[in-house]
């Protein structure tokens, strides 16, 4: 139950004992329940992959690749002189069509014979 995220109080209630009694007699299971269950599940996955289950083989390969990448990342970050990856300069965000239309409406008639006729009245929205 601990490996599924249940609290000690919930486990104790389901067994009909006090949480202190549970902690006293099952301390190892409470502390290491998740890692024991994960080891068991990975063992079953490995056994299934060895027997020819392609889905299990793919999943096991993915888990191995991710674990290897995590170890490499940790080793590189612990090396002296290791710096963070350079931050890419932020690109100007692309304006949406409504923003473009709004800006064009505010500047409509500028430098043309229409001039002030198309200028919006202050405090109102242009048509």
Describe this structure in words.
With 127 residues, the chain is mainly α. It has a domain at 2-78. Helix content is 58%, strand content 0%. The protein contains five helices and no strands. The chain has helices spanning 8-15, 19-25, 27-50, 54-78, 97-106. The longest helix has 25 residues, at 54-78. The mean pLDDT is 82.
What keyword list fits this structure?
single chain, 127 residues, mainly alpha, 5 helices
Given as residue ranges, the uncertain stretches (5+ residues, pLDDT < 50) are none
Helix/strand structural class: mainly alpha
Helical percent range? 55-70%
Choose one word for the global shape: elongated
H/I helix tally: 5
For the sheet with most strands, the description reads: none
The ordered H/E elements are: HHHHH
Strand count:
0
Alpha-carbon Rg, integer: 32 Å
The span between the termini is 64 Å
Fraction in beta strands = under 5%
Mean pLDDT: 82
Give a short synopsis of this structure.
With 127 residues, the chain is mostly helical. It contains 5 helices and no strands. The protein has a domain at 2-78.
Question: What's the arrangement of secondary structure elements?
Answer:
Elements: H1 8-15, H2 19-25, H3 27-50, H4 54-78, H5 97-106
